Amino acid sequence: MSNAQREPLCLVRGSINIDEFFHVPTMVRPGETLSSTHFERRACGKGANQASAVAKAGGHVKLIGAVGEDGGVVRPTSWSS
């Protein structure tokens, strides 16, 4: 396959973060403490979000980003260090 026939590649270099979401039954008021009903972590970050958007739009994308020692949530065991 010649270079002219290859699918374009979008290379994203950016941040990969973990966002934590605490679900609460109502909006918290000043001085109020609520217990959460559900907790979840999601991989986010500007770079990760951009790469995800390109992939969802049908593009071919690769993401380059650094993951720290505490990044076990986003680093599959198959990745090299």
TrEMBL record:
<dbReference type="InterPro" id="IPR002139">
    <property type="entry name" value="Ribo/fructo_kinase"/>
</dbReference>
<dbReference type="Pfam" id="PF00294">
    <property type="entry name" value="PfkB"/>
</dbReference>
<dbReference type="GO" id="GO:0016301">
    <property type="term" value="F:kinase activity"/>
</dbReference>
<keyword id="KW-0808">Transferase</keyword>
<feature type="domain" description="Carbohydrate kinase PfkB">
    <location>
        <begin position="10"/>
        <end position="70"/>
    </location>
</feature>
<keyword id="KW-0418">Kinase</keyword>
<dbReference type="GO" id="GO:0006796">
    <property type="term" value="P:phosphate-containing compound metabolic process"/>
</dbReference>
<dbReference type="InterPro" id="IPR011611">
    <property type="entry name" value="PfkB_dom"/>
</dbReference>
<dbReference type="InterPro" id="IPR029056">
    <property type="entry name" value="Ribokinase-like"/>
</dbReference>
<protein>
    <recommendedName>
        <fullName>Carbohydrate kinase PfkB domain-containing protein</fullName>
    </recommendedName>
</protein>
